[in-house]
Amino acid sequence: MLSRILHIVSQNGGIGLDWGFVAKYAPMYVKAAGLTLRIAAIGIALSLVVGILCCAARRFRVPGLAQLAGAYIELARNTPLLIQLFFLYFGLPKIGVVLEAESCAVIGLTFLGGAYMAEALRSGLDAVEIAQIEAGECLGLTPLQNARYVIFPQALATAFPAVFANVIFLVKETSVFSAVALADLMYVAKDLIGMYYKTDEALTMLVVAYLVILLPLSILGSFLERRLRHAGFGDHRSV
Is residue 41 part of a domain? Predict the structure, then answer.
């Protein structure tokens, strides 16, 4: 898709770039985009799991775990991903723990994303009215049934925009992975600029690559959010 977009632009006059260079090195961006997407997908999936566990620990005030989850969330949200990656990649080997660059990227993205997902999910749970929960109890639902059929559907629908915004945020955060020698999109762009001084071409391909990844995600998120609203999930007026 990236090569096709660049070809279309070149056919329409372009923007004064060296299109021979673009055509030659566009496949490197396609390969790097695949790596970026794979790491982002794994990191986002794991961050959702971490977010759910932390949210549950704080919501139900599990002794010890609630305080630990709170401390983790504050630490993760108040330190940059780049610093976290440096700690994993350069700091841990000092104590004998050596991780590959890709493992550091997944762990770092999960560590950062889990905190943001936990807060997004907590906001959804807090938005569920007490009357809704009490209504489920009056109907004779067990706590598990109440959570499954009453609380979680409304909470997830309310939290969805924030959760999906975090997904896009985490995909964009993958741009710092090049700092630990991971051959992602940013790494390829900096490498080409350093070797050939083709700054305009390298950065144009970088921008197009991120647009190809993020624009469909943004459109999908808006579509799913509208579907949830139209379905009435979490809309107490429809009850």
Answer: yes
